[in-house]
Design brief:
The protein contains two helices and 14 strands, in the order E-H-E-E-E-E-E-E-H-E-E-E-E-E-E-E. It is mainly β. The chain is globular.
Length: 199
């Protein structure tokens, strides 16, 4: 169980997003790479290592995320296809053994054999604020507040780079990511987004 389950009718907003995607009414932004989440939105459950950290947490796709786009009116961020579950990530608490830099002749691992950190699962429940149950009964994991969304821009004539979408509150609502881990369907709802392009 992730935090609280809230019943909330977002069906109309989801249907609007689906219609824009289906009709191609969007401006491509590239591939979803990272979603930054404010620490105050992380569920405070006893086995959550991220709760109470005071720092932003993230969902990282490492190149496996779906394509995303802006709606034609540039008001909505659309997810164009199913989002795979975020892959495992290097353990940030891991430290290499002290002798990894000692030469092999001296009995160490040597620089060429620098060890790689173990990978850990990105548990959705560790990063979530709760669960939203839509009126149709489907349950979506809720991540809120989303503070920033990173996308990898497509490479055109050696171009590419990153698009950083900075999210802030609008009309009393923060940007939220709703994600159905069963189908991979995902929606960014609410809030205001401003794009910075790093090319």
């Amino acid at each position: 169980m992730i935090g609280a389950t809230v019943e909330f009718d977002v069906s109309a907003l989801m249907d609007a997003h689906r219609a824009m995607v289906r009709r191609g009414e969007h401006i491509p932004l590239g591939k979803l790479e990272k979603v930054m989440i404010g620490a105050d939105g992380v569920a405070n459950v006893k086995d959550n290592p991220l709760a109470g950290s005071g720092q932003s947490v993230s969902l990282d796709w490492y190149g496996t995320g779906p394509q995303v786009a802006l709606s034609k009116d540039q008001q909505d961020l659309l997810v164009l296809g199913p989002a795979a579950k975020p892959p495992s990530v290097p353990d940030p608490k891991w430290l290499p053994p002290r002798d990894w830099f000692v030469s092999k002749a001296e009995g160490g691992l040597g620089r060429a054999a620098a060890p790689k950190p173990p990978r850990i699962e990105q548990r959705l429940r560790d990063r979530a604020a709760g669960v939203v149950r839509a009126k149709d009964g489907r349950r979506f994991v809720l991540f809120q507040p989303v503070t920033q969304v990173h996308t990898i821009l497509p490479k055109i004539d050696r171009g590419g780079g990153l698009c950083l979408l900075n999210c802030r509150e609008m009309a009393g609502r923060h940007t939220a990511l709703l994600y159905d881990p069963k189908s991979g369907e995902a929606f960014f709802l609410f809030g205001h987004k401003e794009a910075d392009f790093l090319i």
